[in-house]
Write a structure and sequence with these properties.
By secondary structure, the protein is of the alpha/beta class. It folds into 2 domains: about 90 residues, no CATH class; about 80 residues, Tubulin/FtsZ, C-terminal domain (60s Ribosomal Protein L30, Chain: A, 2-Layer Sandwich), CATH 3.30.1330. The chain is about 25% helix and about 15% strand. It contains 5 helices and 7 strands. The strands form 3 sheets. It has a 3-stranded parallel β-sheet. Helix 4 crosses helix 5. It catalyses: GTP + H2O = GDP + phosphate + H(+).
């Protein structure tokens, strides 16, 4: 007795890989894009191992034992409208209405931000923490060619210069020999604008 395998494909990558895999499975087992198997064809001399991955309906249609799940419908809609759209049961294609790219979660609440003012020195030091940078390497092990810092709000040049001087004396970051100064600084005195009742701050 053959066992049954259920495939679960999650997210954009999972759905796209799953769609390609099921197309390959159908080609390997001679199943047509609509789930039917040609009546004149006996796969593998009567081998029914494909039943591990496909369930057969009363009408003789072979349906993948699979579930596709994604937060937003765009990628699964490609399955719904693609060549193999008749292969899958609609209940196997599960989507939400919005993807995770639209999820801007707050790190610090607006109320807390008013009570915990960071100094210019703390903000500047935080810029060079690897956890605050979107890079796939540890920047502490390399050298910078240049660095641009843009401050916004109630910031004075004296504090900025002091913060940069502290970083240079600590040697926490290093610059290439041919560019020893390294820093380009801008200050925008206009405070950041926030939308009323917005989750973004």
């Amino acid at each position: 007795m053959s066992r049954e395998c259920i495939s679960i494909h999650v997210g954009q990558a999972g759905v796209q890989i799953g769609n390609a895999c099921w197309e390959l499975y159908c080609l390997e087992h001679g199943i047509q894009p609509d789930g039917q198997m040609p009546s004149d064809k006996t796969i593998g001399g009567g081998d029914d191992s494909f039943n591990t991955f496909f369930s057969e309906t009363g009408a003789g249609k072979h349906v993948p034992r699979a579930v596709f799940v994604d937060l937003e419908p765009t990628v699964i809609d490609e399955v719904r409208t693609g060549t193999y759209r008749q292969l899958f049961h609609p209940e196997q294609l599960i989507t939400g209405k919005e993807d995770a790219a639209n999820n801007y979660a707050r790190v610090i609440s607006a109320e807390k931000a008013y009570h915990e003012q960071l100094s210019v020195s703390e903000i500047t030091n935080a810029c060079f923490e690897p956890a605050n940078q979107m890079v796939k390497c540890d920047p502490r092990h390399g050298k910078y060619m240049a660095c641009c810092l843009l401050y916004r709000g109630d910031v004075v040049p004296k504090d900025v210069n002091a913060a940069i001087a502290t970083i240079k004396t600590k040697r926490t970051i290093q610059f290439v020999d041919w560019c020893p100064t390294g820093f380009k600084v801008g200050i925008n005195y206009q405070p950041p604008t926030v939308c009323e009742l917005s989750a973004l701050c």
